[in-house]
Amino acid sequence: MRCRRCAHLYLNPRPAPSDLGVIYPSNYYTLAAPGGVVGRARRAWEGRKVALYEQALGPGRKRILDVGCGDGRFLAVLRDFGPPDWELVGSDFDPAAVERCRARGFTAIAKRVEDMVEEEGTFDAVVMLQLIEHVEDPVAIARRVFALLRPGGIFVVETPNLAGFDYRIFRERWWGHYHFPRHWNLFSRESLERMLRGAGFTIERSEALISTSAWTISLGNYFLDRGYPGWFARFFNYKNPLLLAIFVSLDTVCSRLGLQTSNQRVIARKS
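RESULT FIELD:
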């Protein structure tokens, strides 16, 4: 559905919050980090994010929250690539994931970010990567993150963007980032920035990111829907290193030309 007033895109009807355990089973694909060439490329790419966070945060001891931390995979990236004096904390609604995160040596909180009241004003950064599109009420999330941050703290958001060439091509029914029934809210750059400003943030940085999974999944959806053989459609898999190289290159060129892709990052600051 698209709002006639603000053009926000949202899923309606949607699963109930009580059904999260059904739509995110233990074998949900994003819970397992890819291995091989794809896994190494992903880790190197994520490692480069850390320098950006460090620049935005400045020197000194910082307390950072990774919302939706899962088993602590991205916390491990922050630990391995970031300054040793960062205090790293994760939160996740899944108690089993929190236990796995703790087993890797991290502090992890087993609750939704909406329920984190005692931690208000204790973080220098809150990181939310490919998560805000999954939540029931992103406006409430943005306001809660604002409360969790210390003055001057940053909110790092990565989420799909309704602006890439793949969205324009596949928007009718095949776009990979629709991700039914898990993506409940989808943002343009303008709508995401508007929401964050409404929560009290100042937008400090807004940029396009590579979006390999959107291209590959969209193509796979298209070919399956058009009746192509299953083996052919399955070639368009987000773990395929050949397609990874092609679409990383394509989105890299687009971002360097100042064009938007189907993935975005915004860094917003609590003034």
